[in-house]
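New to this. Help decode both lines:
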Amino acid sequence: MKIEPVGRGILLPPVSGEEKDGGREEAAEKVEKARRAVEQERLEIMDRHHENLRKSAETYEKFVKKKLLENEIEKRRLQNTEFLEKSIEESEVRREAQAQRRD
């Protein structure tokens, strides 16, 4: 028993030359339009990517500046603390020296 595929027995009307060319032109236009759309989407994706990179760089720069400022503030606090301790020691030495002179 032989089975024939569906639609094989139906004959389609012949396509004229103008319709063939018109179909090819339409297909070429559709392909070109699709290519332009894909290229546009690719450019938009790259723009978003570059914008994200720029924002990340700005955020990182702000973070680094903040860390540097925090380190500088801590360094100055330590210097102030050392200076105050030294000043207190010097004033105590002066007081003792003045007390000894009075006696």
